Amino acid sequence: MTITRRFILGATLALTGAATSGAASADTLRVGSYPANPPWEFKNEAGEFEGFEVDIINEIAARMGDETEITGLDFRALFVASASGRVDAVISSLTITEERLESQAFTQPYFSGALGVGTRDGAGISTIEDLAGKRLGSIATSFPEAWLQEREDEIGYASYSSYDSTANLLTDLRSGRIEAAVNDIVGLRYAFAQGNMPGLDVALEIPTGDKFAIMMPQGSDKLEAANEALSEMKTDGTMAELYEKWFGVAPAEDSLTVTPLPIPTSAD
C-alpha cells in the first residue's frame, strides 16, 4: 500500500469514526436532575435514578429513539446547565414561571402543584395566618422560596432561611432552627411517610396552581419531539399509569397529567 493510499484510508476511517461518535452522542438525551427529590427523582441504593419524572423522561427518550444520561446537580446549577446547553433537559418538579421562560423553554405541564407547610407536632400552625412571626425555610431558587419572598409583608414571618437541599431543610425543621418548612407538598408527604422523621407532619396545604414541566434550553431542537411524546403518553394512558405507580391513585380525568397541551409560551 502506498503512502497516498494509506493516508486516504486513514482519513476515511477517521471521518467514519467521527461520524459514528457524533451519531452516538446525538442519540443520548442529557438530563440534569436534583438527586434528592423523591418521589419525583432520587437515587436508589444502587446509585441509579428513580422516580415519577425519571420514568417520564426515560419514556420520552425511548419514543424519540434516544437513551438517557441523567446527571445529579445542585438545584441552582440545573438552570445554568440548561441555559448553557450542558444538558438537553432538566427534571426536578420545576414550575413554569414567566421569569424562567425569559431564559429557558418548557414542555407542556403534566402536574398541578401545591405547597405544603411541614412542621413539628404541636407547632400550632394550621393556616397561612399562623405563619406570622415564625421562622420559615425552603429550597434556594425554588418556586416555594419565590412564593414566600413575594409575600413577606403579607405573611409577616419572623425570618427566612434558604437551603441547598431538602435533607438540610428538614434537619433544621426537626431540630427547631426553623418552625416551618415550605416545599412541594408531594415531596414533603413522601419524606414524612418514610418513617425516619417522627414528629413531623404536613400541617397546611396551599393550592397555588403552579404547573410542573420539563425544562429545556431555549431554541432546543428536541423540544417539539419531547412535547409530542408527552402528548402521546397522555393520550395512550402511559402518564396515568406512571402517576398511579408513584402516587397510589389515578389522576383526575381533566388533570394536566392526562390532558395534551401545546408548548407553553407563558406561565398561565
Primary descriptors:
nine-stranded mixed beta sheet, D-Maltodextrin-Binding Protein, domain 2, alpha/beta, ABC transporter substrate-binding protein, 38% helix, 268 residues, globular, three-stranded antiparallel beta sheet, 12 strands, SBP_3_CS, Solute-binding_3/MltF_N
Task: Compose a concise summary of this entry.
With 268 residues, this protein is of the alpha/beta class. The chain has ten helices and twelve strands. Residues 28-250 form the Solute-binding protein family 3/N-terminal domain.
What does this structure look like?
It is built from 10 helices and 12 strands. By secondary structure, the protein is of the alpha/beta class. The strands form 2 sheets. Strands 1, 5, 6, 7, 8, 9, 10, 11 and 12 form a 9-stranded mixed sheet that branches. A 3-stranded antiparallel sheet has the order 2-3-4. A hairpin with a 3-residue loop joins strand 2 (36-37) and strand 3 (41-43). The protein is globular, with a radius of gyration of 22 Å. Residues 1-26 have low confidence and may be disordered. Keywords: Signal. It is found in: Cell envelope. InterPro entries: Iontro_rcpt_C (IPR001320), SBP_3_CS (IPR018313), Solute-binding_3/MltF_N (IPR001638), TAT_signal (IPR006311). Residues 28-249 form the Ionotropic glutamate receptor C-terminal domain.
